[in-house]
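Reopening: dihydrouracil dehydrogenase (NAD(+)) still failing for me.
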Amino acid sequence: MSKLATNFTGLKFVNPFILASAPPTESKRKILKAFEAGWGGVVTKTIGLHPVENVAGPKTIYQRTSEAKPYVSRMKRPDTVSHSSWNWELISDQPLEQWLPDLEEIKATYPDRMVIASIMAGTGSEEELENWKKLATAVVGVGCDALELNLSCPHMDRKDMGAHVANDEAIIRSVLEAVTSVVDVPIWVKLTPSASTIVDAAGAAYDAGAAAISTCNTFPSLPLMDPETMKFEVEVDGLVTPGGQGGLAILHQALKRVNDLHKAYPDKAISGIGGIRGFREAFNFIVHGAGNLQVCTAAMEEKGSGGVGVKLIQELCEDMTDYLDRHGYASLEEFRGIARERVVQHAQIRRKSEDYNGGFAKSA
Ligand SMILES: Cc1cc2nc3c(=O)[nH]c(=O)nc-3n(C[C@H](O)[C@H](O)[C@H](O)COP(=O)(O)O)c2cc1C
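Support: Ran it again with your exact input. Result attached.
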């Protein structure tokens, strides 16, 4: 068996690398291509029952920077490197009825790959909780291996949906209660990094039956304005609204969230997301406790791959296998979480003198 094989939330993954819920997993065609390339699983683009109509302009931009002129911009310049993605794309506009036969076919074609259906509904009423149940029952009915509850979409005006509810432990519990009452597969809960209480929110989710927390979704943010044209780098009719930043720029912040969660709940599963472009970023998520890695921006950016990261998944597998071999590890479990106890309070870091007391006056 490959050293990359992992068991995450009771599911067997041929490798720990999966495509996150986003354009790479928005259609049957792309998911089949991703599995052909070697991804261990996919989280589908979020499926919902409410009306979806995207903005009348580009939904995603890729922001780059360069050594010569190190500002961040989507503008084409020579010799640039990736900084981040920025998007204001809503969830899937493909109806559930179309997703169901597609998911069934995907699972039948690649039975050894994990298909996690991302779902989202409102939370404001019994009717909305019924929508969670309807979505969950339907996708599990066609063979999905797990669910990821999207409590993190940053683009909703509705206050009962997405990132708006991820601070509310009662709502998190009510959604989990609804979903676990109708299906028996592992439930992953995707939390927003913008919640001030991600540890408490995760605690409520685990307590209410979540098998894993997935984090991070994109960070709420604004695109830049061009000083010459006075236009935002992405706008419609001169207007913009906060969207989500992903990619390398969010890596360190995502790692902080994963470390916080792993410290608070060392025995619980975490799916790490945010800025993974290769082995080194994946490694960092693992040492902070993630048992599974999700990738979005880097796959979308890979030219010639149809936006599913064909070369990327090969490199991730090769580089991780090479690392395990060189260090004599039988699996990534052998170094998962090793950084946890090395992230400490500020006052626990050695000073040049003994005088510092965490900002408090020393008692006499
Ligand atoms: C264009 C775009 C669309 C996305 N759509 C969804 C979505 O429908 N559901 C979801 O849970 N996350 C969505 N995401 C967030 C990604 O799944 C992921 O959490 C985020 O991009 C961070 O990962 P990255 O740094 O590898 O891009 C989207 C991201 C992008 C860039």
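The chain is about 30% helix and 20% strand. If you still see a failure, please send the error message rather than a screenshot.
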